[in-house]
Design goal:
Blueprint (H helix, E strand, L loop, with lengths): L1 H12 L14 H4 L10 H16 L11 E3 L6 E3 L2 H5 L15 E8 L6 E2 L6 E5 L29 H4 E6 L15 E6 L11 E8 L2 E2 L9 E11 L5 H9 L2 H19 L26 H12 L16 H12 L16 H20 L5 E6 L10 E2 L17 E5 L2 E2 L12 E2 L5 E4 L8 E6 L2
Length: 457
Amino acid sequence: MARSLLSQLEQIAGSLNYNDLMADIHTGAVSEPSDSTVSGSVEYDLNIVRSLVREVKNIGSDWYAALPTYTAAVDGSAIDASLSNIVTTASGYGDGNLLDAKSVLMPVDDNNSGAGFTVSGTSTGFLFTTGTQYASTTDRRGLPIFASTTPYYDEGEPDNIVRIDLLDLSTGNEFNGSNGEVVFGKFHDGKDNGGTGDGVDAWVEFYTASGTYTWAGGDPSDITLVYPQRKIMSEMEEWEWFRTDFVSGFEGDVEIIEDIENLWNYTGASDGVTDPTWTNTTAYYLLDANPTDLTSAINDINDGVGDRDYTDSLVLTDNQTITASLDLLNVAIGDRDYTEENYVTDGESLTDSIDALDMALWDLATTVSGVTAPNKYVVTAGAAIAPETAVNTPISYTPNASDTQPGLYMDVYVDGQLLVADYATLGNNDYEETSTTQWTPHFAIRKFANITYVIRS
């Protein structure tokens, strides 16, 4: 009995063999063996525990090595990856679960409640009110300040960290300075620029690629900004994750803004304006229905332009692009610089020119249709004709004694001499158009004289 007790005490006192790399420790045959040769061995059981501890710590060295650490995003300190730190809260900040191990630079849009930030005169920037703290060497959360008398933190000072995108409030476009360069901002300490400083306000300093910039006449007077703010994961709002997951950081967000501005410029839209304004919406224009969206407008244009299946294809080719067709028509139509401008006006629309020609042609056609081919007759007087004696015409005609066109529809010649008909306000010329079948000479006509008639209507 004494030898058995001595042997057991020796086992309890310490393992003779230390092993933290035992194989198959997740099987019952190894961790809870039934083999009588090993069962009841404290050394064996401790080696199982050693191997499990080493696996839980997931370290490459001995089972008794120190816990691994992670770097806190807030102050850069090394934190043990213990269960306490992982599940609860590490170093007094964050919500645990290692959420304080990662920080994200989020873009924040601010237009000062729609009023914008006003600049003028010789401004080199403006004071921006914010309750967000400045990032520092001990706490990287907040605003990355580019330059200050206080040593605030901005991760090595690269521009893509501290740059602030400035937009013209009235147009939504980038702030372009009088020197032709894009003006952007950087956060400076508000206390150094007439403000209170950390956690209250910050100064937005103007910069271009050439250096600092001073506001000049013609520059935007009201500005909105998109600025960077660093947060740790546990501080992220749910809606902010969408910006992080689908946009690759702050620069990607700025690219989206620029793309939207390009779309606005291309479509003619602007910030908050979705109803397009068309130049002409009166009757017979393609957009006379005044559509409120681009899809409807394009459909109206598509219907108005037609199927591009041309009847003769003298100038155009079937199914060619509208651009190609318009280019050919532009050349074929010419510069609309008319030589005389009798009926049309230089530079007017083709519709107006065609309309003027249409009316002129109609007037001409109507006039021509009312005039018949002239009929010529030669009559020999069988007896002398005394003055003021009515003479019968070979056929009927239309008398016209107007002041501007007397004798419009009939010419009378006596022995080859063309006679002059009486005017409406002036009689006693050569003759009077008495009726539709007679005329009355104011002079004597000899016997056998040749009387020639040219009757048009």
